[in-house]
Specification:
The protein has 292 residues and is α+β, with helices and mostly antiparallel strands. It has one domain: Double-stranded beta-helix. The chain is 25% helix and 24% strand. The chain is built from eight helices and 15 strands. Helix 1 links the parallel strand 2 and strand 3.
Length: 292
């Protein structure tokens, strides 16, 4: 059965026709999903039933090697047993809701900043796949911003200027903006990484801004000027015309391309309501070739 995409926003994001990802093995369907990612950058798959291992297996079939150096891994071991699947939840290792001052909860507040997954690593993250396992009875949405459309909207002079710049991305920088305190040992485990201000998406034939809260320094500019430029471009890229709001449903799996989107969680009463999601991120290595 052909894969159908229903747009969810004027610029990007689409819902995919009924498909069971844990049973998707044929290369033709995987290639159609990759083509959809090149066009829409954010894809929504409804009613997915996946174990952690099935989610990781699908991610590898679609896009290769998994990212396993999450920022949270510097703070301690995950309760899930594998660093390749991120625990996006407000639940302790004992299964109880996290207390308001719990260090894991305070660290996770950084998810409310506009960010891209794993840009503080080299290689960075390419596709992230977030699966809803337990949702609260209140809104707990995720916002996505299309940095391709934001780049396209800039004038030619600004585009040329930005394409000559390099950013240092650091999760220590983004968390410290919120007052989160890292130990010296934790900082050593999270040195950050350098990436271009503008990404060239060769298979999709587009260019995109590549910035977010992890971007703390523009190497070709003074620190204050560079941070002002990053802030201004984030403000530009998160204008309403570039943003899609995803309202989660049970079993949703959302895939997004970190090279050309930012995302952020919206707040809810997380010391009252349980919310559990699992995220797998692939490494930004060699892309699969475009389908004919």
């Amino acid at each position: 059965m052909p894969v159908k995409f229903t747009p969810l926003h004027q610029n990007f994001a689409a819902e995919v026709s009924t498909i069971s990802l844990r049973e998707t093995f044929d290369e033709s369907t995987l290639a159609e999903i990759r083509k959809g990612m090149d066009v829409y950058a954010v894809l929504v798959f409804r009613r997915q039933t996946l174990t952690d291992s099935e989610q990781m297996d699908f991610a590898q079939r679609l896009d290769g090697e998994l990212h396993s150096k999450t920022g949270a891994s510097a703070l301690g071991k995950t309760r899930l047993g594998s660093e390749a699947i991120a625990d996006i939840s407000n639940v302790s290792s004992e299964g109880s809701l996290l207390e308001q001052q719990d260090r894991k909860r305070l660290y996770s507040l950084g998810n409310r900043l506009w960010h891209t997954d794993a840009s503080f690593q080299d290689p960075a993250g390419r596709y992230s796949m977030l699966h809803a396992r337990a949702l609260p009875p209140v809104d707990a949405d995720t916002l996505f911003a299309d940095e391709r459309a934001a780049f396209d909207a800039l004038d030619d002079k600004t585009k040329t200027f930005l394409e000559g710049l390099t950013c240092h991305h650091s999760i220590v920088h983004s968390r410290q903006m919120l007052g989160f305190d890292f130990s010296d040992e934790e900082k050593l485990r999270l040195p950050g990484a350098f990436h271009p201000f503008v990404r060239n998406l060769k298979r999709a034939g587009r260019k995109s801004l590549y910035l977010a809260s992890h971007a703390g320094q523009v190497m070709e500019m003074s620190l204050p000027e560079g941070r002002l430029l990053i802030w201004e471009m984030i403000q530009h890229a998160t204008q309403p015309e570039f943003v899609y709001r995803h309202k989660w449903q049970d079993g949703d799996l959302v895939i997004w391309d970190n090279r050309c989107t930012m995302h952020r969680a919206t707040p809810f009463d997380d010391v009252k309501y349980r919310r559990e999601l699992r995220r797998v991120t692939t490494l930004d290595l060699v892309e699969a070739p475009a389908s004919p």
